[in-house]
Amino acid sequence: MNTSRRKFIRSTTATVAGLGLTNTLSASVLAHSKVLGANDQITVALIGARNMGWYNLTDLLKQPNVVCKTLCDVDDSVLAEKSEALVKKGQKKPILEKDYRNVLEDKDIDAVIVGTPDHWHCLPTVEACGAGKHVYVEKPLGNSIGEINVMLDAARKYKSIVQVGQQQRSGVHWKSAIAFVQSGKLGTIRQVKYWGNFNYGAGNLPVPDSDPPEGVDYDRWLGPAPKRPFNKNRFHGSWRMFRDYGGGLMTDWGVHLIDMGLWAMDVKSAPRSVSSIGGNFANNDRALEMPDTLTVLYEMDGYNMLWEHNGGVQTGPYNQNYGVKFMGTNGTLVADRQKWRVFPEGEGEEQRMEATREQVSDNKSHINHCENFVRAIRYGDELHAEIEIGHRAALYAHLGNISFWAKDRVVYDEKSRRITNSEIADALVTPDYRAPWKFPSL
Ligand SMILES: NC(=O)c1ccc[n+]([C@@H]2O[C@H](COP(=O)([O-])OP(=O)(O)OC[C@H]3O[C@@H](n4cnc5c(N)ncnc54)[C@H](O)[C@@H]3O)[C@@H](O)[C@H]2O)c1
To answer: Could you tell me the distance, in angstroms and rounded to a whole number, from the CA of residue 343 to the centre of ligand 1?
Structure first.
């Protein structure tokens, strides 16, 4: 990148001591944060390259003048496969890395994609902010409330551009659904309900522990999570059913759908309280720690908000296996990623609102989201899923899980960042990190 071509270079300085990270970067990288000119090349690196991270990179590379310099993963086979695929896309052969800290040391890198499992979002994101990189981090923002709080703080401290992978925010039909809810035509909204019924939420059949596959740095894959023997079910793709690495359907789909309700209802704060009930009622023979059946009640001002998921089934209300419903006094709007529809109350002359044609998706939400990230870097466009949006959705989802684990209604205080009515629940706010990794402090 030719620095002289940059229209403007913003500089933020931080010290290693100030960052308080052990997982340290050298002092030399802790200075910078760039705003790029319209014609500047944006050089990205991908951290966590197997599935969603790769999809993000693919759509970022469709944006003008974006190149990938480095792929970082702890699995050699993923690095080899994606490196070959990048070259096939006409990109230069990338640098291959197993340690994300080396990526952050590279001053050529303007932005990183964090596409690792949820327990590995926090450290790379916080440190990338400290190193002046722009960040596209997957959802849920972190694997605990403590993590999402420190990630938000880091983004604010270093004035970082952080887009969270809640791509529904960039979906045109979602935007029109939200506008319709906000128009008041549905009358008074009394209930917002989300549901997610997915077969994968039942978990896989158990398999015995084994050696990690060749070429996998398993200790690094675990990172700050507790040390455990390798088990295929806790690894690529299915880790999200285990608490150390993910939050099951509640955080996986929960953040996407709850985000739509928080957007439409213009929610800017934590719920008054959260109560969850559920269990693994139908899939006890499977390898999963998360409840296959969960119902969560969020106490909101003036309406009820509910989350419900069922792993191992794929049918649901309105013939949709997942969705969001806004129930008003005049009618109900129901949406998923393909469409939204309105069901007016009353019949004939008694119908309380005009019928509305079904609105369909253009299926461009993901590429729009990537474009928005690039435009935010180049032109200062407002991010569609700025970190605060990811933070709020993740907060709601994690509170749902915490209430379930603590078997208690929970009340979260945003000022003290604590659960004030239950010590058991409060102890779940911030995870213990396994040495040598340290929970970041700013
Ligand atoms: N936005 C969406 O619609 C969407 C869809 C799917 C997944 N996701 C999110 O994307 C993230 C990744 O999910 P996935 O399905 O791609 O998981 P995955 O298991 O398929 O891939 C994760 C990759 O990260 C690598 N990895 C693990 N630790 C690493 C480390 N310390 N450094 C570098 N690489 C590391 C793994 O080896 C693996 O290749 C999750 O947070 C998930 O919730 C989002």
So the answer is: 38
pLDDT tens-digit series, residues 58-95: 999 999 999 999 999 999 999 999 999 999 999 999 99
pTM of the complete model: 0.94
**pLDDT tens digit string along 388-429?**
999 999 999 999 999 999 999 999 999 999 999 999 999 999
Q: Which atom of ligand 1 is nearest to the CA of 236?
A: 19
Q: Pocket around ligand 1: residues whose beta carbon is below 6 Å from it?
A: 47-53, 72-75, 78, 100, 115-118, 120, 138-139, 165, 167, 220-221, 223, 236-237, 252
Task: Give 207-214's long-range contacts (Cβ < 8 A, gap of 24+).
Answer: 207/231, 207/232, 207/233, 207/287, 213/75, 213/77, 214/76
* Residue 52 Cα to ligand 1 middle (Å): 6
pLDDT in tens, 301-352: 999 999 999 999 999 999 999 999 999 999 999 999 999 999 999 999 999 9
